[in-house]
Fold each of these.
Amino acid sequence: MEWFDNFINEFLRAQKEAKSSTTSNPLLASIRKTRQLVGVEEAPIKEAFDSLERRAEEPMKVAITGQFSSGKSTFLNALLSKDVLPTGVTPVTSKVNYIRYGEEFKLQVHYYDGREAFYGIENIASFTDQRQSMENVKYLTLYAPMPLLKEVVFVDTPGLNSQAQSDTQTTQSVLKEVDGIIWLTLMDN
């Protein structure tokens, strides 16, 4: 009977350890448990589980999308309680803007050549506004001190059906990497 007592004690210890290490993220706990049950660590399966674990540890990504000039940036400005993102009646946003949690408002610009630089938020229009020239900018990350952003990353997209086909292509590629979508449309549509 000693082996049975040892088995029970080991089970209870493992269960307690699993609860204490993952109670804040039940999805991550499920992924890790499934990984353990599958027990295969061959390249494609290992990479898939690694990717799932990384995504489970990140905040949920929600894209704000719709047709061009449907109020996507205006909606996000209202959410931020601050007019940060440039808005207009014609298409304005040409770069993807990730809106994440940060201790203070700041802008991080990611360039195609791998460089990254920080700027004050008052400079955002010069990096995202279609009326400016910024071919070397890949995407932007706007940091804001909002508790909601600890759980959700909002993604401001250029939108669909713009005169610039690249805007539609950029938006379509972003939609493949998000967990959810908020679709905005104008009242007259």
Amino acid sequence: MSPESDRRQLASAAAQLGVMLDEGQTDALLGHLALLSKWNRVYNLTAVREPSAMLHQHLIDSLAVVPALQRRLSSRQGKNCRLLDVGSGAGLPGLVLAIAIPALEVVCVDAVGKKVSFIRQAAAKLGLSRVRVEHARVEDLQLEGCDVITSRAFASLADFVSLTRRHLALDGCWMAMKAKHPADEIAALPKDIELFHVEQLQVPGLDAERCLVWMRPKPA
């Protein structure tokens, strides 16, 4: 697939999702894709091998959460917001969200060195100055005050909230990216965690179920 074809497909997907991207953001997203494709040949960052498949299964899949996240952040009344991406892997969704929402402070954490090296290199190459990258297990991370904590295929919902709870701001929430509606995982959530929304997502060009699971601590 040619770069122009990738650009057209990305523009079409963004339009379908209602995500406004300027030329610089589009270039950055395609730059991320190119770097991922290049590094993946050597470091095996993802099992998806073809750039055209990466475009839909990784890039556009991550971009699909942007409208929901923007709606959530709109209630913050201009406050600077910090998002923690747990098990960020190849910077998914962290780098994509940092590109699409430039005002967002994004912290990407992963325990695998080669993945952390890729995220750092990509963030530097793409000029993402508001991205911080941490090489650590999330339970060992020294970080507080995250307004949103997200993950993409990181762990069960119960493990996700338990491992990251101390990083959450007082009025923060969790945004877990899942495939099918995770009914069993929801049933296993700790009693003091409130699930307040499950949002179905439609990912352009991807024939697969996707949803966002929104959670927060129950009031004391």
Amino acid sequence: ISYIDLGEFRGPSPDPDSRPNIKLAVFDKNWELIEDVFVTEFDENSSLHAGRPSVILHDGILYVSYDIENIDTKTHEEAKDWQCEVTEFEVVGE
């Protein structure tokens, strides 16, 4: 499952200096968590903002796609200059 992680800044009014990151969680057949990893690692000093993740598995490669955009680190205004990114993960084992 790919998802947006807001870190410690969850709630109705997240810290404007926080940066959403994309994470990937892997579960077994019984929904026991196997691994939970960051796909992006933007911090409060970054001008990048991540969103809208999705996944697809093809020929043993798991592709995590998401968009990123720039934000003004002082005003927190979005540039609305979204670009698609894809990160690949090799699937090993069962």
Amino acid sequence: MEKLTLTSNLTNITIVERFVEEICEHYNLNNTYFGNILLTLTEAFKNAVIHGNQNDSNKKVTILFDAGQKGLSFVISDEGEGFDYDSIPSPVDAEDDAEAEKGRGLFLIRSLTDDVKFTDNGRTVEMVFEIEGIGQKTMKNRLKHFNQYFKQVKQKVK
């Protein structure tokens, strides 16, 4: 598990972007995963800074990252008052542009993650990206090819 603690300053979004780049590079994730992770994590960070911590640079935003059997998990927490995440309207149902802007970040997070959970009265959001066993599918395919190859070699030797 990796932990990133940042002050509530939107300029720190570049650190979040680099964090995502390093993770995606390490796990050799394709551009689709990279784009979804980058967009949702930066939206969650912005929400934590602006709405959660009210742009108070004395407060922190914490990002926890873990890679597990099902995929990648990111937990973003702020030090704000929290919010009722179920009361935020979908921008799809908005009547005007100003109203649509309000729920855009949460809409993106809910749309681009495989699972999202809000806890601690809305101060914490967990986003999960289901990536089959992080490389296990590739490893199984390679093993299958090696086994086929060695079966062929054994048959030729007989």
